[in-house]
Amino acid sequence: MRMGINVADKSLLDAYRENEANGFRLIVQKFQERIYWQIRRYTKNHQDTEDVMQNVFIKAWKGLPKFREESGLYTWLFRIAYNETHTFLAKSSKMKTVDLDPPLFENKVVVEGTALSPEEIEDKLKKAMSTLPEKQLLVFNLKYFDELKFSEISELTGTSVGGLKASYHLAVKKIEEFLIED
Hints:
Elements: H1 7-18, H2 20-43, H3 46-63, H4 73-91, E1 109-111, E2 114-116, H5 118-130, H6 134-145, H7 150-157, H8 161-181
Antiparallel strand pairs: 1-2
């Protein structure tokens, strides 16, 4: 069941049709942060994320005249970002990257009697997530970090809500097991 575009998307598309450059700028402003974090969870550093994001919006600019309005703008941009991210990762899979951005956590946390630094916590979570199959990782990211509803994820991915719930449950179990064993 595809929902098509909503009123806000229609307004953005109308602005684009009136003045392409100005309308596209409004589209970028509305979606750039969500797209950034979607990409960032896979690329792991700011510079690579910016590179992929630039490619996403270039493709969007070129593809917008042919946009069929069968899905929402974010759904369309999400798919472009997903494909661009995976293309980037496939090309750079042999190169290691170093994340120069600050860690997510700021204080030491005590886990089962052991004090862990923020960097250690973040590293453990990244390692656990790296063990997930691609589909489970995607669903986990969208549900846990983006806090999307399963119905929204279903719209983005074209997967049934039941299948998404199963993937999410399996991802959480695998992460828990990894963290307990480590």
